[in-house]
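Inputs:
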Amino acid sequence: MRLSRFLNYLLAFLFALWVVLPIYLLAVLALSERSAVFAYPKPLYPQPLSVETLWRFLEVPGVVKALGNSVLVAGLTMLLSLLLGAPAGYALARYRFRGADFFRILVIFTRAFPLAILAVPLAVHFIRMGLYDTPLGVALVHTALALPFAVLVTYSLFVSIPKELEEAAWTLGCTKTQAFFRVVLPLTLPGLAAVGIFAFIISWNEVFAATILTLRERTLTALLLNLLHDSPLPFRFAGGFFLVLPALLLIFLVRRRLLTLWGVASR
Amino acid sequence: MAGIHLEGIEKSFGRVKALKGVSLEVAEGELVVLLGPSGCGKTTLLRIVAGLEWPDKGRVFLGKREVTFLPPRSRGLAMVFQNYAVFPHLTVFENIAFGLRMRRLPETVIREKVRWAAELLRIEELLSRYPAQLSGGQRQRVAVARALAVEPQVLLMDEPLSNLDAILRLDLRAELKSLVKALGMTTLYVTHDQVEAMGLADRIAVMREGEIVQFAPPLDVYRRPAHTFVAGFVGHPPMNLLRVSPEDARVHLALDLPVSKEVIVGIRPEDLEPAPKGDPGAFSARVRVVEPLGSHQLVTLEALGTTLKAIWPPEPSLDPGEEVWARVHAERMRLFDPATGRAL
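Outputs:
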């Protein structure tokens, strides 16, 4: 009994180490002076603490703009995924309509076509439509990537809210829209926030579509992919750090909210 | 306050006919219980009154106003659900205030009405709590207070007590009845529990397979069931139903049948009285099972070629296998047509 407990903890520790260690090294070297990258043995903590590496990274032409583009694209993706995904999830959860099951499978199927196959026709279409090399164009593709997740997760969020809560609201004077915003939305907000953040991260990390569909309006991932081979080590560490940072921060932020959803605990 | 008037309500779900032309009249201030087994359409009927479903055919009136296709919010009613449906993200106060806020009443009025409703349900000290901190019984009190706070024309209740444990259910049942009666609230109440229906209702509408089989005051439903289905569904244990020929009826039950064919005779277990041996009009029976229940004993008898349940005084105690005599007063017997199941 004790031993198995110990083994569990050991295993969990090793897993955590496996994930945390590279991120930690990345952070240490990104927050050290540029010379630390070449030191041996590597320092275990930034010494001295310095933003020189990060600063120099941001001074590279195009980086700040790419960072801005990444934030814009990811923000748009988050917004679009929620605006399109949540109503679809709600419809699946609340209404029995012809082809509902088929629709659910179809949603997953959108992930069955590799982006590599779609990329060229997509680029051609985007050029025709004037979406090529725009943040909106990239955001649309990223939304397509994030949508299946958004639809299915919001579906399960809405399904977990008893229909009677809405019906009670209707009998107490709400229109269907009012009932949604006064009852369903507050109860699903933490979950919806998590969906949005996940969409944000999917977009932030996506590199293939962003590379194919942009030329000057690069996102950070697309820019880094282009520059990585010819850039000095400190640049790579700083770049890696910037890529990991938002995902880490956001997940850390919603972690508590994800676990303490009032609605889930109180039903 | 308003009455409810239903006219030829029909409703199908796919190929299943849930309601087959139901008409019902609930008077102002009356408490009517829709009683029936699951799947009889009672909840569907309630939801049609609420506006949560629309009928395929027929019309719904609240008072003089036709509301058949109005949304629930425009009907001036309130509903209490089986699973309470209190809003988990709002305090008890805000739950009760919900309907009042939707009407944009001034804050002082809202406070006053919430306090009034909370006092009625004796939950004043819970107003600042969240539903997660309440027991099932307290949550249902909140739900009832929330419904009463809006002072509805009509109160609808869908099995409001069936998620509660037995003792709590008894308490709240009595309380609900006195509350609804004191307020003179027109109430339509759905349950599958015949004891609950008997205890609460001014009139019971017994439903089966999308139709109302009998609509009458509780004691009428109990004493004069209109159908063998009602006889078997209401009462615990249910009415004994035995098929007898005119001759058997005359010989064993001292009963002259009004028709010259076989009938079904319904006898309540408490109407099957012990009788002295050889008493004219009495018949002999063999005791199969004896269940002493304290205030009375439930005796399973074998007689007239069938099994009968009888409720007898606890004394004298009986033994299985013993021969006893029993009789029934003719006016306590209920006759049914074996072909249709309807009362003769």
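Remarks. The interface with chain A takes residues 50-52, 71-73, 75, 77-79, 81-83, 85, 87-89, 98-99, 102-103, 130-132, 143, 146, 150, 156 of chain B (CB under 8 Å). The radius of gyration of chain B is 24 Å.
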